[in-house]
């Protein structure tokens, strides 16, 4: 068996650092990824960087460009719409089950997560905001007591982090996200399953509409190649 030369946790840290940069928009779509430069900036050897880049390519975050190596892949509107359609259903189910099975724990532990989310927004740090958002949703998954919801959503977390980054960096009122989270939590904590599900679906649908409307507006503003 071949010896492992790069600690898995170091590869994960490099992967997380690169994903944070992409989600924050500091590495925008089309940006060329230079392995040697990244290794120098992160203060690590090339090997963990190379492994992290392979993983990001497999996850669709990076893609090959002829003559340019790897570049940051663009998020496609159709992919985003499909992602949010699925999320609306699963998040709604998770919140309904959480209200039925974890109301007491939600009331006890949930407010601290909301407060942490508001502090993350106040910090202006995209990485903190995205991490707080993910922690909130993971908390709801755990309250649902359905062991399949968390792992199902985890397969899409990489794309979700990019989408969350789009929302928190470009939304003019990111605190509204945590107002919505607080409302969802209150419905869960009071055991109002139907309301919790409706709020969760609305939360996800609004995020999708925000992103898709903005992207379509940008596409419409771009000059056509056939324009005079």
Automatic annotation (TrEMBL):
Keywords: DNA-binding, Transcription, Transcription regulation. Pfam families: FCD (PF07729), GntR (PF00392). SUPFAM superfamilies: GntR ligand-binding domain-like, Winged helix' DNA-binding domain. InterPro entries: GntR_C, TF_FadR/GntR_C, Tscrpt_reg_HTH_GntR, WH-like_DNA-bd_sf, WH_DNA-bd_sf. Gene3D superfamilies: GntR ligand-binding domain-like, Winged helix-like DNA-binding domain superfamily/Winged helix DNA-binding domain. It comes from the Bacteria. Residues 8-75 form the HTH gntR-type domain. This is GntR family transcriptional regulator. It comes from Ideonella lacteola.
